[in-house]
Specification:
This protein is α/β, with parallel strands linked by helices. It contains 10 helices and 7 strands. The protein has a single domain, classed as NAD(P)-binding Rossmann-like Domain (Rossmann fold), CATH 3.40.50. It is globular, with a radius of gyration of 19 Å.
């Protein structure tokens, strides 16, 4: 088999949750360029439709679907629509997720006096519903779409599932408690499910992105008044050996490899795409 055939994904169908967002949306567009039919799932109808329309304008085949990754019945209805349009998917990318400031602390290091400070969001003052909402979006929002869309893959005997973990799940970020815990769960679940499905022909892997300059991160890591890096951003770049943030398109190569036959002996792996972040220490 030639290298071109190994990486060929043309004619396949992909379901991408969170497809209206920056990173999953970039993957959706890239796969469509390679001839993949792309189902763009997102809770935000406007964002999902904008991504699907952009793909169609470029000559690709795509359809937007509005649903919540936390509602199994909505996912089931979407699955029926996708299968009615293109048949069972070959690929599932679980891209829905995100962090919430309500599920993050305001201080890196807590002091005893912080227990009584009204202006300090600590581990102890954080509302459990805020923690659970962030954790649920990132972990349950990966588990449920997998239950819904992978069943047909197992029945067919082939398929590739790609979860989006994070460097925060490998080495937890200060302040970011719920998101880090959820992404660690995603990484662990990826490995567990890969073993569980290993005799079915379905492979399960994950990307663990480092810091990518999305619009959300740009707002948090760039001083809006000066355009300069915030102190936290400076720490981020200093801890990334390549000395910069990643660009969303830099996830595409690893994604195509993990979905295609080029990685047919790869399952249960969590692949860092992080500019060396996970390899650097002092």
């Amino acid at each position: 088999m030639s290298l071109e055939q190994l990486f060929d994904v043309k004619g396949k169908t992909a379901v991408i949750t969170g497809g209206g967002g920056a990173l999953p949306g970039t993957l959706a567009s890239a796969l469509a360029e390679l001839g993949v039919r792309v189902a763009v799932l997102d809770l935000n109808e406007k964002n999902a439709e904008a991504r699907a329309e952009s793909i169609r304008a470029g000559g690709g085949e795509s359809q937007a679907f509005t649903c919540s990754v936390l509602r199994e019945e909505e996912l089931e209805r979407t699955r029926e629509k996708v299968e009615g349009l293109w048949g069972p998917p070959d690929f599932l990318i679980n891209g829905a997720g995100g962090n919430s400031p309500k599920a993050s602390t305001t201080q890196e290091f807590m002091e005893p006096a912080d227990l009584d400070r009204g202006d300090c969001l600590s581990f102890f003052s954080m509302r459990m519903e805020d923690f659970q909402a962030s954790f649920g979006l990132n972990f349950t929002g990966t588990l449920l779409p997998t239950r819904v869309f992978a069943r047909a893959m197992v029945r067919r005997g082939s398929g590739s599932i790609l979860n989006i973990a994070s460097m925060a799940g490998i080495t937890p970020l200060t302040k970011v408690v719920a998101y880090s815990a959820a992404k660690a769960a995603v990484a662990n679940f990826t490995k567990w499910l890969a073993v569980h499905l290993s005799h079915t022909g379905v492979r399960v892997n994950a990307l663990a992105p480092g810091f990518f300059m999305t619009e959300q991160l740009r707002f948090l890591h760039i001083d809006q008044a000066t355009g300069q890096y915030t102190p936290r951003a400076q720490k981020t770049v200093a801890h990334t050996p390549l000395g910069r943030y990643g660009e969303p398109a830099e996830l595409v190569g690893t994604t195509v490899w993990l979905l295609s036959g080029a990685s047919r002996f790869v399952t249960g792996d969590v692949i860092p795409v992080d500019g060396g972040y996970s390899s650097y220490t002092i």
